[in-house]
Structures are given as structure tokens and as C-alpha cells.
């Protein structure tokens, strides 16, 4: 079941007593962000602020992705990997062609119809008095440069392929008609901008959308395989195509959005953005990004504004990272077939540390997998990659520690790669967006890798295990310990 819009999701939350409605007056200046972070740290359900100081008629919704449980509700299952697996089995078969070729050929299948975007009359109307300052954008940390859209979706169209890009980038409000869009160099927004630039276009049509089915917002913040239309991918994950409407500037937007800002990004107007308290828990320093210029605003009656605040983990981006990890594992396994499981730990900042288990079959495969992972989409941002054998549970950090301690010779098994693309928000990076990365091959080694046989691991005698089982159980029971 897919939620038609954010209102239907709020109704679902109300029915299931999973929303906290706050009717006390509250300010967009630090107050909503503070309460929202405190709620996420405590895994409280979403918060709906109904009385926002200075913004009558608006409601602000935060903490939508309050824990992995939010995704179970939104996607109707706790087995997120199954959604992608079913899709791959149903639509992709096992044709030995590349992922992007498969995706292209998909549009030819008639059975694809249900998940394709569908044209629908919008529920929003043009609002001539509205401007960027009339939105309840949040100031999230005391030294932020100003008020920001923190969970709005920037929609662009790739000028070469016409593929629709929906992406969550923070947006710094400058004045009533101008804002700065913080898209990092490797993201779809900047890639589309660079393509427009090559075609001689300096003013790129853009829409900034807020308040949609949270699955669409999640997909916009996810590393969907390059070249794949995010409306199409949202349809795959929702099991139902997104209802869309074409704006005068040619951009397709969800018909059921709470607000739509139509305009363009001016590539000739690049300004200093930030500082902004970011997901590393530090203020990111200022840097130059292009400016968005507003042309029209469209609103629903009594609109709901979706926002978040990032900071020290684990906040909403950590749970988004966990859902991404589960949903995208089957896709990643198509590119790196030896991959068994992965863990992007909450405290590893999602783009900081990744742990991957592989089915190792030949010497050198640990480092090979590492390089394949760094070469795949946004995993290129990972600063630390740890590769372990398939019998190591990547979600058990102690097992991972044991694998590192018992299989790694640092000089032989640690790879440091310098001057490569990394997370430009990371203040430790010497020359953003270029920095270094470390890969730790914590797999057991073949003879070719060490020059000698890998030693045998200790293992109990099976007969002793069977013979001693009754005594062990007796001891455990007598101490009220679980028998396992
Ligand atoms: C709350 C939130 C804020 C984000 N802010 C930014 C941002 O300011 N700049 C950026 O490049 N990515 C940001 N991201 C990450 C992107 O949304 C993410 O990389 C997404 O996959 C966009 O990819 P795309 O550009 O390939 O569509 C943010 C994600 C979340 C959840």
C-alpha cells in the first residue's frame, strides 16, 4: 500500500497513535530543531507542530524517519531487502547485461505500467503573495548562516536523457526570491548543471518541492543507481507510480505536494553558503554554491512543511542510511556479486564507515571488493571500508573487531588511497572534495597473500560437545542463565 500524500501518512500515524501533535506556540528559530533532535535521540514518533510562531496556517512535520520502524510502516514490511529482491526477480530476471542496460530495457515492458509516473491534476494552486520568507524554514543550530529548507526536494531534469532527478539538498534562504542550493559535486543536481553548462544553458529549470509521501522524500535522499529516474524508482519501491504534474518550466512535480517553488538555478550567480551544523556534528565551513531564483509559488491550503535537523548521530539521516543499506544491498550484489551483507553503522556517519562481508574465493579478492565498492555510486564517499569473510556478522561490531585483530597485518592488508573524491562536508578532508581513504582487508588470507598456509582455527571435539551438553545445561539452569 502506498500513501497518496503526506496527509494520508499523518492520518495513518494518528490512527496508530504514532504521532505527537504539539499545539504550544514554537519558533522556527532553533526551537523546533532542538525539540525534534531530542525526539529522534529518544526514537519518539514524528512530531507535528501546529502553532508555528509567525507562520499562521502552516504546520511543521519533523522526525518522520525517527527509527528503522518508520520505514517498516512506510514500506509495509520489515523485510526491506525483499522489496528490491522481488523487483529484481520480477523485472530483471538474470539477463547477463549491465544494471543500466537492464534498467533501460525495463521501460519496454508493459507490466511496468503500474509503477510508472502518472499524470494527475495538482492539489496545489499558485499563490501570488508567497515568497521564500513566507515558508517556515528552520534555523537548526546557533551559528547556522540563516534559515534553511532541510527536507525539501530539488527537482531537475537531465538535459541529455530527460531523466527526472529528485534530490534532498539543504537550501539556504537568502531573501524573498533567492536561495543557495548545496549540491555536492558528484550529486545529480550538479551533474545535470554541468550538462546544461556544456549545452550553453546558464539558467537551469528547477522546482523545490516539500511535503510529499515520505517514501518519495526518502528516495530523493537515496543513492539510486545513476541514470535511473527517481520517479520510476519511487514507483518501484512504493509498488505504485507517483502522480505527477508538469510545471510551466517543464519540471515534473508530485501532484499531491504541499508546496512547490518554481524557478531556476543561475549558474552565473555562485555565492558563499554556510556555515551549517551538519551530520558530522560540526559546522561545515563556507563554500561556493549556485543560487536559486524564485519565479512562482504553489501551495495547498493550510500547508504542511516537512523539515529535519541533522547533528551528532544518530539522527534521522542515520535511519535513512540503515534503510538505504537494506534496500540497496540486492542492487549492490548485482555489481559486486561476492557481497554477502553490509553495515553502515549509525555512529559511522553513514558515509564515514562501511563494513562489508564477502564470499572469498581467490587471493586479493578483499581488496578487489573494496575498490569495486569505492567505485559504486555514493559508496565512493566512504572514508573507511572494512571487508570481512561471510561468516562474520557485519552488524556485530565485536565480531568485526575480532576479524580485524585476527586476520590483518596492517602493512599487507591496509590500503590507503590518496587524493580521491570524498565527503566534502568532512572537516578532516585536507583538500575538499579530495581526501584519502582507508580500506582494511580483514578476510582470512590465501597462501598467495601471506607466503604460507593460513593456520587452522580451534574447534571443539564434536563428541565432547554432545557428551557435555547435559552438564552444561545443568550448570546454566542452576545459575538462571539462558540455555543456548
Ligand atoms: C536531511 C538530509 C540533508 C541532505 N543534505 C544534502 C546537501 O546539502 N547536499 C548534498 O549534496 N546532499 C545532501 N544530502 C544527501 C543527498 O540527499 C543524497 O546524497 C541523495 O542520494 C542525493 O543524491 P542524488 O544527487 O544522486 O539524487 C542530504 C540528505 C538528507 C537526508
From TrEMBL:
Species the sequence originates in: Stygiolobus caldivivus
InterPro entries associated with the record: UbiD, UbiD-like_C, UbiD-like_N, UbiD_Rift_dom
NCBIfam families: UbiD family decarboxylase
Domain 3-octaprenyl-4-hydroxybenzoate carboxy-lyase-like N-terminal: 10-84
All residue ranges annotated as the 3-octaprenyl-4-hydroxybenzoate carboxy-lyase-like Rift-related domain in the record: 118-313
Identification of the protein by name: UbiD family decarboxylase
Pfam name, any one: UbiD
Record family assignment: Belongs to the UbiD family.
Residue span, 3-octaprenyl-4-hydroxybenzoate carboxy-lyase-like C-terminal domain: 319-442
One GO location term (cellular component): cytoplasm
Stretch forming the signal peptide: none
GO MF assignments: carboxy-lyase activity
Amino acid at each position: 500500500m502506498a500513501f497518496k500524500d503526506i496527509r494520508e501518512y499523518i492520518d495513518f500515524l494518528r490512527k496508530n497513535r504514532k504521532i505527537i501533535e504539539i499545539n504550544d506556540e514554537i519558533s522556527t528559530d532553533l526551537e523546533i530543531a532542538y525539540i525534534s533532535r531530542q525526539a529522534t535521540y529518544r526514537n519518539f514518533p514524528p512530531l507535528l507542530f501546529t502553532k508555528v510562531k509567525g507562520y499562521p496556517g502552516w504546520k511543521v512535520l519533523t522526525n518522520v524517519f525517527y527509527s528503522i520502524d518508520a520505514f517498516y510502516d512506510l514500506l509495509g514490511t520489515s523485510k526491506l531487502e525483499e522489496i528490491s529482491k522481488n523487483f529484481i526477480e520480477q523485472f530483471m530476471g538474470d539477463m547477463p547485461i549491465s544494471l543500466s542496460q537492464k534498467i533501460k530495457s525495463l521501460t519496454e515492458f508493459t507490466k511496468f505500467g503500474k509503477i510508472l509516473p502518472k499524470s494527475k491534476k495538482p492539489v496545489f494552486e499558485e499563490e501570488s503573495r508567497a515568497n521564500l520568507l513566507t515558508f517556515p524554514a528552520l534555523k537548526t543550530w546557533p551559528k547556522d548562516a540563516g534559515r534553511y529548507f532541510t527536507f525539501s526536494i530539488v527537482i531537475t531534469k537531465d538535459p541529455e536523457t530527460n531523466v527526472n532527478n529528485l534530490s534532498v539538498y539543504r537550501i539556504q534562504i537568502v531573501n524573498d526570491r533567492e536561495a543557495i542550493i548545496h549540491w555536492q559535486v558528484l550529486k545529480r543536481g550538479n551533474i545535470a548543471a554541468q550538462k546544461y553548462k556544456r549545452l550553453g544553458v546558464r539558467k537551469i529549470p528547477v522546482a523545490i518541492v516539500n511535503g510529499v509521501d515520505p517514501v518519495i522524500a526518502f528516495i530523493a535522499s537515496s543513492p539510486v543507481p545513476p541514470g535511473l529516474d527517481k520517479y520510476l524508482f519511487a514507483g518501484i519501491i512504493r509498488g505504485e507510480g507517483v502522480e505527477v504534474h508538469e510545471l510551466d518550466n517543464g519540471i515534473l512535480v508530485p501532484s499531491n505536494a504541499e508546496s512547490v517553488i518554481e524557478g531556476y538555478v543561475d549558474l552565473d550567480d555562485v555565492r558563499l553558503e554556510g556555515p551549517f551544523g551538519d551530520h558530522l556534528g560540526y559546522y561545515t565551513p563556507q563554500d561556493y554554491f549556485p543560487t536559486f531564483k524564485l519565479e512562482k509559488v504553489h501551495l495547498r491550503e493550510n500547508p504542511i512543511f516537512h523539515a529535519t535537523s541533522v547533528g551528532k548521530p544518530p539522527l534521522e539521516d542515520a535511519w535513512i542510511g540503515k534503510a538505504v543499506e537494506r534496500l540497496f544491498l540486492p542492487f549492490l550484489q548485482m555489481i559486486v556479486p561476492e557481497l554477502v551483507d553490509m553495515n553502515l553503522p549509525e555512529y559511522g556517519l553513514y558515509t564515514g564507515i562501511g563494513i562489508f562481508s564477502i564470499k572469498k574465493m581467490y587471493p586479493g579478492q578483499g581488496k578487489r571488493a573494496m575498490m569495486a565498492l569505492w567505485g559504486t555510486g555514493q559508496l565512493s564517499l566512504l572514508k573507511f571500508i572494512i571487508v570481512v569473510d561471510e561468516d562474520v556478522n557485519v552488524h556485530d561490531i565485536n565480531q568485526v573487531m575480532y576479524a580485524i585483530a585476527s586476520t590483518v597485518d596492517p602493512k599487507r592488508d591496509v590500503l590507503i588511497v590518496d587524493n580521491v573524491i570524498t565527503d566534502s562536508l568532512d572537516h578532516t578532508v585536507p583538500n575538499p572534495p579530495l581526501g584519502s581513504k582507508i580500506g582494511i582487508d580483514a578476510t582470512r588470507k590465501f597462501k598467495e597473500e601471506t607466503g604460507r598456509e593460513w593456520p587452522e582455527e580451534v574447534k571443539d571435539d564434536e563428541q565432547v560437545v554432545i557428551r557435555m551438553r547435559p552438564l552444561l545445561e545443568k550448570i546454566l539452569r542452576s545459575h538462571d542463565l539462558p540455555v543456548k
